[in-house]
Amino acid sequence: MAKQVAIIGAGASGLISIKCCLEEGLEPICFERSDDIGGLWKFTETSGHGKTQVYKSVVTNVTKEMSCFSDFPFQEDYPNYMNHAKFLEYLRSYAKHFDLLKYIHLKTIVHSVTKCPDFSATGQWEVVTENEGKQDTAVFDAVMICTGFLLNPHFPLKSFPGINKFQGQILHSQQYRSPEDFQEPTRSLCKNKIYLYKYVFPSNLEKPTMAIMGHISLKGALFPGIELQGRWATRVFKGLCKIPPTNQLMAEATKKEQLIKRDIIMDPTKEKMDYITYLDELAICIGAKPSILSLFLKDPRLGKEVFFGPCTSYQYRLTGPGKWDGARNAILTQWDRTLKPLQTRIVADFSESSAVSHWLKIWGGASVLFFAVLLVYKVHEVNFV
């Protein structure tokens, strides 16, 4: 019998987690409290109810090729930087293509997630949910928390000297919808400090059956990192990948905290992590990191594109578990999809002028060759004299 995994949230992280579970033969059940998928990318005119959403004028600040899922490229005519509606459209296409919607329970609130009495032996969780006023309790073999670190607003007002004298309205971005009423809206957010092994697994659990998805801040696109988190976490649930025991993880967390306090290493809650380093680290855990040397030897064209080109997520589908046959072509055509939305001007094809241009190129090349030969002849003639 397949292990059942509870997934909380049907935003981008939740959709990724559902698909990763299916790839490993696990049985996902996703709970979403709203009436639709998309998470914060589902824009509404009203805010509140503890749900973070994009504001009306938001536009992505990472290109589509860098932010797409590793086996589902954006359509070539999508803009490189898109508004929230276009990105939500992409998420819907992703869910439809991989048939994810049937695993999602909409309008379902998760009230609690607690360890079962025999957790130390089974690693199971008791999840209490509510749908249309009816509560239900179920036991799951693993849980993936996909609410993101942007769920709850945080106001570090004490960090701003003189804030008590400020006469204007203090507004969190969670409440901001459009610029009509505000000329200078204030955005204030900071992450809570948590100890997660590779920013996924809580260090204090006897069994690694809970994954916290998307609690990372990268110097690059977020979704490729979350996708690799999901691919790794589901293999840990299945027992195919191992992580160190709890006592070792807690000791490492304590040591890390001391090093942060002494300013020896950076605080991951305040600094962004290196994009490629983190992705490679997770890819190594699941055996999906491509060998650049091997690519150069077996497929020089692909090796050149991977090594000298952008670090797109497709390369983590070239080998290992979850290998995708379309990864090579996706890498070799990524610049085509980048340039496509920029080619908006229609240029008429005049056959006569094209022919003239063709002959001009031929005569121009012949003229250059003639003068080059003449110059060489003159030089030899002078030397002979």
Automatic annotation (TrEMBL):
The keyword Hydrolase does not apply. Its cofactor is FAD. Pfam families: FMO-like (PF00743). Keywords: FAD, Flavoprotein, Membrane, Monooxygenase, NADP, Oxidoreductase, Transmembrane, Transmembrane helix. Its EC number is 1.-.-.-. SUPFAM superfamilies: FAD/NAD(P)-binding domain. It comes from the Eukaryota. InterPro entries: FAD/NAD-bd_sf, Flavin_mOase, Flavin_mOase-like, Flavin_mOase_4, FMO-like. One of its GO terms (molecular function) is N,N-dimethylaniline monooxygenase activity. It is an enzyme of class 1 (oxidoreductase). The chain crosses the membrane at residues 359-377. Belongs to the FMO family. PANTHER family: DIMETHYLANILINE MONOOXYGENASE. This is Flavin-containing monooxygenase. It comes from Sarcophilus harrisii (Tasmanian devil). The gene is LOC100924222.
